Amino acid sequence: MESFSDQLKKQREERKIRLSDVAVQTRISVKFLEALEAGSFEILPETYIRAFIRDYAKAIGLDPDDTIKRFDSYMDSVRAEKEQRETEAGEKSGGRPFNLSGRQKIALAVGGVIILAILSYLAFSPNKKPPVSPDDYGYDSSQMVNERKFDSAYSAETAKPAAKPDSARLVLDATDTVWVNLVIDEGKTYDLLLRPGNKVSFWGKKKFNMTIGNAGGLLISLNGHEYPPLGKSGVVIRNVTILKDGTIKK
Q1: Helix, strand, coil shares of the chain as percentages rounded to 5?
Q2: pTM over 0.90
């Protein structure tokens, strides 16, 4: 039986619609769309999976509500199969409870205290931040926003980039996990997954076009002028354009 993702891909191909065309229409990166068609939902930002599916369905001419129902039904069947496998595995092992002796319980308790102490030291020890892997988010390191590396077109706020003549500076400050598709001057496009505390800046000569997931979790400023959040938490705002003069078009 075909999976939910296989059905989506088949329906797109039957309509002779290219994945790149879906990406242009939805402003969702091709890499995320490929993950959706492959059933690799763990690669997608969990908060936006259903929004991505709705946009995909609209782009290829499917009913979004019906597609979401099929997705929910598919996920219910996946969870049911997983629970059944776990139950069968437990029955094969005899279903016997795992009892610990008094000494084993004491040893586990002591080990737990030691592990907590080590984790606390690592968490609060200065200058010891764990590296962030680009694979954690499913897109290339050139588009990865983390503490170590930024693309040349944008920089960490702390880097204090020099002003560029005849350009406007856009600053994105995440207070919550936010997905942003950003197009600068109808040119370079960025797919960003910003975590709380990430603050990045971009330069543009004419305008900035954005689609924002979880709009309430993003603070935006242009040339030092701060805007109120463009939407509520959990809301997806599409095709918002901020012009060089500060005008916002929705």
Answers
A1: 45, 20, 35
A2: no
Which of these, 169, 137, 131, 176, lies nearest to 153 by C-alpha position?
A: 169
How far is the first Cα of the chain from the last one, in angstroms, to the nearest whole number? 43
For 96-140, what is each residue's pLDDT tens digit? 555 656 666 677 777 777 777 676 666 555 444 333 333 333 333
Q: Are 52 and 36 in contact (CB under 8 A)?
A: yes
- Interatomic CA distance for residues 140 and 213, integer angstroms: 20
Give the E-state strand segments of the chain in sequence order: 154-156, 168-174, 178-184, 189-194, 199-204, 207-213, 218-222, 225-227, 237-243, 248-249
The C-alpha atoms of residue 181 and residue 191 are separated, in whole angstroms, by 5
